[in-house]
């Protein structure tokens, strides 16, 4: 990896940028009260509705939730990839001192792929079928590092080798359809990491892969993270993946954060009925095969007209335990103490009791 | 790859055989021979004289024998009467008594020049406008361009051609009447001599290219991989031209293949409108005169060109899209 000059340049620029000089207290990535709204023919969709979180260098935030809960939409907002004509974005996204929601398209384009990179779920669809894998890595490198074709090609070969593709000198000229699913996802990672980004957003990168390959990819991401100190936002609906990768977890429901905490806190001592539902829906592979699966009942709410009060109340088993029908009328706020909290009307004692008596016994 | 070309070449021979047989048969079914004999013999013609003409032209032999003689002549050459006709022998014209091969060779450069110029303009302007429309999609520029293309496409050669002649040749006298000059003699004269028919063909075919390029590019821009390209921070130009346009090339190649076939096989109306002597004119005159060898020659050449154009399109698909393989 120490072979070519542009590589060294990339490594050093990443290292130079490391201390965020003038704003010592603020986080590396800080999202505050993010709103994303789409104007559709049927009305306004509040895809993300007041999301806040922080992320430090070198750490991993897992975002969990069902389809349509706003996971991917928030990450696309960080990259500024929404169509500005159809989307209204509110709130603030501070990335290493830069306010991304106010940044010009030109400024954003210099960050994209260079300092903030993204891995998408379906690598076959997310890679261009018309260009070789090597070219798709090299074009990013050329664009951001001003490298020559030759240097960029060498970088592509190095990156393919680093993400564990055998014979990278030969495979560099192959097209995505020549690669297997796992190799394509590795190639996606190679593209994303070509310029040593400071922040990597991984949007369900292992969902389309079988578990063996999934585990290899997760290990790879972990290795690369410890090597380069990249901050990672890991979007998934798979709690197993979260347990394996994340430092902090954010559970999203209907465009809002309903629970936040460290991975240990959320997986071992969840505080929100929706998180309970997610946890107890994980099947116990060691258990009796006749035990039926326990899905979270009901369906995700329409974001065009979300239910009044707590958006989860139509699916929640504990509405009756809260007085005055509060769940149906008032929206619970997320109150955080030390980065830990949940948006639910149940009292802290009730949550602890329910988790201990009803949820924990279902977990392995 | 080699197997692909061998297979396609064999297929081409097969298609040409079928087409030639059908053309030959239609000539006899439409009692073309009687017309020819009547025409050659004149108004006051005896039965003996007719039989003589019939024999001279070889029309008295059985159908399949005539067909066989004609087809072997293409491969090996043959003697017709006291004249010998060498290898790709397409026979002698019934009406002008000239070798068909020679007449096609004379008309072909005109048709080829017409087609090449028109195709280049169609690609440059038609596709170019489509790219611009796609890049500015949803804006006024997009709407103006698409509308212009559609209106232009609604013209017909026999309206637009005379109109251009009237304006540029007869009224303002800015140009001479279109005329074919050999490219090898004088490229400048070649281009100016054919510019009016080129513009005519371009305007009429442009709409398809503009609309297809635009819609194919807009489709490509909605593909998932374009989101990746944007997430990589690529420039707009790279995303549009390097990637989305590449994705739009296959459908453009499809209609280009069809148009190459149509244009190369003779643009009858264009040639008549601008008084040019190409393959198209030969074809029409051959039918009018019931000139079997001429008809066969033009049909076979046109068919061969169309088949080759299709072959080129298939090769182009494989070049454009690495997922396509040639079997």
TrEMBL record, chain A:
Coiled coil: none annotated. The keyword Transit peptide does not apply. Residues 1-26 are annotated as: Disordered. It is found in: Cell membrane. Its main location: membrane. Keywords: ATP-binding, Cell membrane, Membrane, Nucleotide-binding, Transport. One of its GO terms (biological process) is peptide transport. NCBIfam families: oligo_HPY. Belongs to the ABC transporter superfamily. This is ABC transporter ATP-binding protein.
Automatic annotation (TrEMBL), chain B:
Gene3D superfamilies: MetI-like. The chain crosses the membrane at residues 9-30, 112-132, 144-170, 190-209, 252-274, 294-320. Belongs to the binding-protein-dependent transport system permease family. It comes from Yinghuangia soli. Its main location: membrane. Keywords: Cell membrane, Membrane, Transmembrane, Transmembrane helix, Transport. It is found in: Cell membrane. Residues 108-317 form the ABC transmembrane type-1 domain. This is ABC transporter permease. GO terms for cellular component: plasma membrane.
């Amino acid at each position: 990896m120490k072979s070519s000059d542009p590589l060294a340049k990339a490594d050093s620029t990443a290292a130079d940028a490391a201390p965020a000089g003038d704003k010592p207290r603020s986080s590396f990535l800080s999202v505050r009260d993010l709103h994303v709204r789409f104007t559709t023919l049927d009305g306004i969709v509040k895809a993300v509705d007041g999301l806040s979180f922080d992320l430090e260098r070198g750490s991993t935030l897992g975002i969990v939730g069902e389809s349509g809960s706003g996971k991917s939409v928030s990450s696309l907002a960080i990259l500024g990839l929404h169509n500005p004509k159809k989307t209204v974005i509110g709130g603030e996204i501070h990335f290493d001192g830069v306010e991304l929601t106010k940044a010009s398209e030109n400024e954003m384009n210099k960050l994209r792929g260079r300092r903030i990179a993204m891995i998408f779920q379906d690598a076959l669809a997310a890679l261009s079928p018309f260009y070789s894998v090597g070219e798709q890595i090299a074009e990013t490198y050329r664009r951001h590092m001003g490298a020559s074709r030759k240097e960029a090609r060498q970088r592509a070969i190095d990156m393919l080798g680093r993400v564990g593709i055998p014979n990278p000198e030969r495979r560099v000229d192959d097209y995505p359809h020549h690669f297997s699913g796992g190799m394509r996802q590795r190639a996606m990672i190679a593209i994303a990491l070509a310029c040593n980004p400071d922040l990597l957003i991984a949007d369900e990168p292992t969902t389309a892969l079988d578990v063996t390959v999934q585990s290899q990819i997760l290990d790879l991401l972990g290795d690369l993270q410890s090597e380069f100190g990249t901050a990672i936002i890991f979007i998934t609906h798979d709690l197993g993946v979260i347990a394996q990768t994340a430092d902090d977890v954010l559970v999203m429901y209907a465009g809002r954060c309903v629970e936040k905490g460290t991975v240990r806190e959320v997986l071992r001592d969840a505080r929100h009925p929706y998180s309970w539902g997610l946890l107890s829906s994980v099947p116990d592979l060691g258990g009796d095969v006749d035990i039926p699966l326990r899905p979270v009942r009901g369906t995700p709410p329409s974001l065009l007209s979300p239910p009044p009060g707590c958006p989860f109340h139509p699916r929640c088993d504990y509405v009756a335990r809260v007085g005055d029908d509060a769940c149906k009328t008032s929206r619970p706020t997320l109150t955080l103490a030390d980065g830990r909290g949940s948006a639910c009307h149940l009292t802290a004692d009730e949550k602890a009791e329910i988790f201990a008596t009803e949820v924990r016994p279902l977990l392995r | 790859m080699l197997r692909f070309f061998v297979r396609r070449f064999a297929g081409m021979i097969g298609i040409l055989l079928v087409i030639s047989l059908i053309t030959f048969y239609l000539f006899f079914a439409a009692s073309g021979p009687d017309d020819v004999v009547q025409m050659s013999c004149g108004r006051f013609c005896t039965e003996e004289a007719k039989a003589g003409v019939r024999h001279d032209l070889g029309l008295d032999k059985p159908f399949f024998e005539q067909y066989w003689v004609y087809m072997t002549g293409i491969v090996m050459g043959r003697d017709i009467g006291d004249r010998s006709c060498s290898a790709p022998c397409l026979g002698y014209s019934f009406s002008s008594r000239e070798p068909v091969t020679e007449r096609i060779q004379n008309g072909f450069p005109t048709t080829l020049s017409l087609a090449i110029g028109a195709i280049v303009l169609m690609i440059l302007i038609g596709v170019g406008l489509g790219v611009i429309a796609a890049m500015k999609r949803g804006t006024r520029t997009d709407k103006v361009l698409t509308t212009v293309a559609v209106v232009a496409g609604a013209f017909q050669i026999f309206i637009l051609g005379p109109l251009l002649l009237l304006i540029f040749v007869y009224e303002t006298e800015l140009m001479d009447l279109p005329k074919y000059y050999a490219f090898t003699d004088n490229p400048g004269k070649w281009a100016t001599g054919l510019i009016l028919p080129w513009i005519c063909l371009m305007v009429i075919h442009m709409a398809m290219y503009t609309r297809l390029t635009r819609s194919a590019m807009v489709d490509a821009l909605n593909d998932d991989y374009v989101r990746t390209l944007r997430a990589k921070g690529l420039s707009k130009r790279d995303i549009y031209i390097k990637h989305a346009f590449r994705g739009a090339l296959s459908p453009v190649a499809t209609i280009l293949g069809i148009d190459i076939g149509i244009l190369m096989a003779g643009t009858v109306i264009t040639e008549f409108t601008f008084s040019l002597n190409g393959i198209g004119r030969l074809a029409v005159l051959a039918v009018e005169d019931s000139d079997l060898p001429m008809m066969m020659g033009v049909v076979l050449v046109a068919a061969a060109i169309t088949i080759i154009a299709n072959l080129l399109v298939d090769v182009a698909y494989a070049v454009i899209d690495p997922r396509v393989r040639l079997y």
